[in-house]
Amino acid sequence: MTADLITTPFGATSTAAEVAAGVDLSGRRAIVTGASSGIGAETARVLAQAGADVTLAVRTVSDGERVAAEITNANKVADTTTGTVTVAPLDLADRASIAAFVAAWRGPLHILVDNAGVMAIPERRTAEGWEMQFATNHLGHVALTLGLHDALAIGSAPERHSRVVVVSSVGHVNGGIRWHDVNFEHDPYDAWQAYSQSKTANVLFAVEAARRWASDGIDVNALNPGRIWSTGLSRHMSNPPAAFEAASSHGVSEKDIPQGAATSVLLAASPLVEGVTGRYFEDAQEAGPHAEGRRRGVADYARDPADAARLWELTQELLATAPLPRD
User: Is 301 considered catalytic here?
Assistant: First the structure.
């Protein structure tokens, strides 16, 4: 794996705007989930500034409208020609909301950033009984991405593929898929185990989707944005667990929001990674293998092709138990 890692001129301190400098996304259409705050909002801002027409897919529409107005007004002040910014409701824990979003989409899609997520939340379940972190971070994004597959395929071209960007986390190195009990139906709930599992699932989804969709001209990659404590993702924690904090002192990249969005923008927009698919990035570079005691790299189990295929089938089975609502 290490012999052919993708490298770029950017690094841990690069910002999303620096990564997108000189990139022209005019005529490209993008969706960013969880774009009402944090790195999602910054990712949307930079993609729009580069010329893309961006849809903010958000759970709270009023928050999305505030961000859309801020992006639009800032671009007017800067007197720059940018893409449009629109807002659409999307609750990734609600199958009906996902179905409505997909049904409302018209025409091609060129960039999908699966950014939204929850972390270390108290035990909660969806209407189907699914554990909320696995449901939101993984199942919801898979349902959305599958629903938009045809639009992504239409948006691809031989010289410029469509792109799916899956925001994972270095937290995936704390644990793989709990195959015996993915929804904590039998074991006591553990917020951090649940989070780690969902983030491993993000990487495995990228691996398998990349394999299945290579002939469709759809590039699918996962990433670790780095530690950005100033976002809403950490709102359920006053302080990280001691073991997590200790592990984080070894190789972790602590970033502000513009730096945290840089790798998402790289994978969504940069010509430097055109045609690259099924890989895992951090600090705007492809990550190497994870080493014990380091908060860096990608775990072997998160890139295992057999586990990626197994999770794809399990995910399909779970989603089939909650059929899309009829018109």
Answer: no
